Amino acid sequence: MGKIDLNTLKSYLWESANILRGSIDASDYKNYIFGMLFLKRLSDVFDEERDGLKIENHVDLNDPDNYTFDVPEKAHWSYLKTLTQNLGEAINKADEALEEANPETLEGVLSAVDFNDKDRLPDVTLSALIAHFSKIPLANKDLENPDILGDAYEYLIAQFADDAGKKGGEFYTPKEVVTLLVEILDPHEKMRICDPACGSGGMLVQSVYHLREREQNRRNISLFGQERNIGTWAICKMNMLLHGLSSARLEKGDTLRNPKIIGEQGRLMEFDIVIANPPFSLKNWGYEEAQHDPYHRFRFGIPPKGYGDYAFVQHMIATLNPKGRVGVVLPHGVLFRGGAEGKIRKGILEEDLLEAVIGLPSNLFFGASIPACLFIVNKNKPTERKGKVFFLYGANDYLEGKNQNKLRKEDIEKIVNAYRGYRSIEKYCRPVSLDEIRTNDYNLNITRYIDITEEEEPIDVQDVLNQLKELKEERSGVEEKMNRFLKELGLQV
User: Fold this and answer.
1) Model pTM?
2) Handedness of CA 182, 185, 188, 192 (dihedral sign)
3) Residues 479, 428: one domain?
4) Based on the domain organization, do 214 and 309 belong to the same domain?
5) Are residues 104 and 178 in the same domain?
6) Are 440 and 468 contained in the same domain?
7) What total of structural domains would you count in the chain?
8) Are 437 and 349 spatial neighbours (Cβ–Cβ below 8 Å)?
9) Could you give the CA distance from residue 408 to residue 403 in angstroms, rounded to a whole number?
10) Order of strands across the sheet that contains 271-276
11) What angle do CA 411, 333, 271 make, to 5 degrees?
12) Which end of the chain is more exposed for a tag (fewer CB within 10 A), N or C?
């Protein structure tokens, strides 16, 4: 068998979804498929490394330090293949053994998924999954390149989000939106990047891809994230490990109530780039706890109980270093809602932190047809951008899809080039002074600043009158002809 390429791996993984169809909800496929993929991958790499060690002299084959991951015997794929009964319990025990053997990298990652549910996952289904994954060699020598594991992973996450509808969209941001945001923020080597609502980790992975595309050292970057959903956090950890990003620091927990990425002297760690797609207008976001926030994140004001958008924005601003930038996906309501949110918006604007507001097409996100926008915050605006906000109306440029619309490569490039060029383009974008925004009472509704009305063609009154005269003459002629016909038929006119 030749080396496995991306399309082959995609087809293998998609077939594993077919084995699960009818047994569990589509939104849960990812948990079990990725869990099995990961188990098989660890065993195959362990065997590959063991074979390499056998060639060397005086090497202890039983020393865990000689392996990327230590795989105990009862967690090895070759053992699981021999079992025919109580497979769910055996897989759970294998996961626990792997976590105990590799506490620094795997603690809590694999045990987040419970395979021991015979009503949903009977032995016959798990046996079919094990047999199917046994056909897929996943050692490094078997793969066209190591990156295809991560690429296939991203592909399947997208497929499951589509299949799972709104529930899937909770942990997945469409790749085109991620690419756009990363292109705008343009991460570089030696930067520290954080996603405080990291979901399955797509924003962090794309930041690394961005470095690779620019031929920079993808290892010379520090990645951080926090995710409150334990199952999604585990998916994110596996995603990082499959992409070879084991140094990423990913914390479990609620970022707004209990931020875990803390630096020196108990303060929030600061970053060069903070990037996120937090849940839109989160209802139960932690209003009560925010009244006494020990990190003083809400200095522009405490958002309303029912809208957590500006809680995330303020958290992200609070974790920027003096030259840091934020890129965040938000619903359009943040642009114009009044009350506490209006006060917060005014504070952010008056501190000259907001660099750009970019409107996106509607129906880009799974389970949410409403249009979204991007806020770009910059603590160190270039001189020519100080005292201004760049507005861009990108709602008209997209590929229409059956379920979701999609940003095309040319749409992304158009937005990025306009943002970097920072000049006015009629009906599309322009820099707007803070004075003009003040006259609009700090309302950031994009169409207040970008005229998107279609100009009506000028009317030539004389031409219209001439056409009307011609029509009257034509009608008169038709009436005369009709009257002659009626007369000939003996009908009174």
Assistant:
1) 0.86
2) negative
3) no
4) yes
5) no
6) no
7) 3
8) yes
9) 16
10) 249-252, 222-227, 192-195, 271-276, 320-331, 372-378, 354-359, 388-393, 429-433
11) 70
12) N
Q: In whole angstroms, how far apart are CA 250 and each of 21, 151, 200, 300, 333?
A: 31, 20, 11, 28, 30
- Spatial distance between the Cα atoms of 241 and 106, rounded to a whole number of angstroms: 9
Q: Hey, is 125 helix, strand or coil?
A: helix
Rounded to 5°, the CA angle 319-322-326 comes to: 50
Q: What CA–CA distance (Å, rounded) separates 384 from 423?
A: 11
| DSSP string of 336-370, one letter each residue | H--HHHHHHHHHHHHTT-EEEEEE--SS-BTTB-S
State how far the alpha carbon of 170 is from the alpha carbons of 34, 162, 200, 365, 374, in Å. Answer: 18, 11, 10, 10, 18
And the tokens for 433?
Answer: 């002074």
pLDDT confidence of residue 167: 44
Q: Are 357 and 391 in contact (CB under 8 A)?
A: yes
If asked whether residues 104 and 213 sit together in one domain, one would say: no
Which residue positions in the chain have pLDDT lower than 70?
1, 161-171, 367-368, 455-458, 492-493
Determine the structural domain holding residue 218 and report its residue range: 166-448
* Type of residue found at 45: V
Calpha distance 290→424 (Å, rounded): 40
Instruction: Fill in the DSSP letter of residue 140.
Output: G
| Tokens at 385, concatenated | 């951008």
Beta strand extents in 280-343 (DSSP E only): 320-331
Rg (CA), the chain: 29
For residue range 422-441, what is the model confidence (pLDDT) as tens digits?
999 999 999 999 999 999 99
What pLDDT, in 10s, does the model give residues 261-309? Answer: 998 889 999 999 999 999 999 999 999 999 999 999 999 999 999 999 9
- Looking only at the bridges linking them, the beta strands covering 429-433 and 388-393 are antiparallel
State residue 414 phi and psi, 5-degree precision.
-60, -45
- Contact at 8 Å (CB) between 168 and 27? yes
- Residue pair 210/183 in contact (Cβ under 8 Å)? The answer is yes
